[in-house]
């Protein structure tokens, strides 16, 4: 789907208030990243430091720190679990997050610890449309043309 001209893939699970996504991979693993809408609201990313492999994360807590033009912010994880892998390409090319947020700009892979219990907090497909549109409106994101 498109929200204000920005791609929000229907097959991902979103923690809308944090503008992060989770893509299911085999074996209870999820690839995590930041939405295009969240990136548009925050601006260009100059540096990204995901949590280290082996780190235990709790849903809604920091999974990475990013440096923006005027601030440093925590990126919140949509799921709890253990970090299995981080996107090493971001060390040299943090712009991948902005250029390809759902592909080469992913942040980390996580072994989910409570997918069944936490999935209710996530939205996907059409269920995500209205909350995403509201986020765009509240953050004064202008439609892309």
TrEMBL record:
Pfam families membership: GCV_H
InterPro entries: 2-oxoA_DH_lipoyl-BS, GCV_H, GCV_H/Fam206, Single_hybrid_motif
GO cellular component, one term: cytosol
UniProt keywords, alphabetically: Lipoyl
Gene3D superfamilies assigned: 2.40.50.100
Superkingdom to which the source organism belongs: Bacteria
UniProt xrefs under SUPFAM superfamilies: Single hybrid motif (SSF51230)
Segments crossing the lipid bilayer: none
PANTHER family assigned: GLYCINE CLEAVAGE SYSTEM H PROTEIN (PTHR11715), GLYCINE CLEAVAGE SYSTEM H PROTEIN-RELATED (PTHR11715:SF3)
Name of the molecule in the record: Glycine cleavage system H protein
